[in-house]
């Protein structure tokens, strides 16, 4: 069963823009690919390490997957794993919470404790 909570890593600037307009249309890579990339809880760390290494001023956005309806598709990506892809703008009404995603002392992103406990698995 797909995860009820999915996650988006985004720059804080892009997220502030989304809050101003009331929806998130995606980062440049999302716009280029034609859908908004999300990760499950277990996939989020790998996504950060692969696509956001060393980047600061990021946020982690938790989203209620069920609130996205049929525009959310689970499609194979890295290693054949199913990743959530949203083929529509993200309505802010589906966002559960937003937290900063800072770099830890080891240079990896420091995820919130609720993700460390396996939320979204």
Sheet with most strands: strand arrangement: 1-4-8
Query: What's the N-to-C terminus distance?
Result: 10 Å
Structural class per helix/strand content?
alpha+beta
Remind me, CATH topology? Answer: ADP-ribosylation fold
Question: How much of the sequence is in beta strands?
Answer: 25-35%
CATH superfamily: Protein of unknown function DUF952
Shape category:
globular
Mean pLDDT: 91
Count the strands?
Answer: 8
Per CATH, the class reads Alpha Beta
Proportion of helical residues: 25-40%
User: Which stretches of 5+ consecutive residues score pLDDT under 50?
Assistant: 117-121
For the sheet with most strands, the description reads: 3 strands, antiparallel
Radius of gyration: 13 Å
Write the H/E string, N to C. Answer: EHEHEHEEEEEH
Known CATH architecture? Alpha-Beta Barrel
- Annotation field: number of helices: 4
Q: Give the domain tally.
A: 1
Pfam family, one: DUF952
Protein name: Dihydroorotate dehydrogenase
InterPro entries: DUF952
Keywords:
8 strands; Dihydroorotate dehydrogenase; DUF952; 26% helix; three-stranded antiparallel sheet; ADP-ribosylation fold
Quick gist of this model?
The chain contains 4 helices and 8 strands.
Written overview of the protein:
With 121 residues, the chain is an alpha+beta fold. The chain has a single domain (5-116), classed as ADP-ribosylation fold (Alpha-Beta Barrel). The protein has 4 helices and 8 strands, in the order E-H-E-H-E-H-E-E-E-E-E-H. It has helices spanning 12-21, 28-33, 41-51, 113-116, and strands at 5-11, 23-24, 36-37, 58-64, 72-76, 82-86, 90-91, 95-100. The strands form 3 sheets. A 3-stranded antiparallel sheet has the order 1-4-8. Strands 3-6-5 form a 3-stranded antiparallel sheet. Residues 117-121 have low confidence and may be disordered.
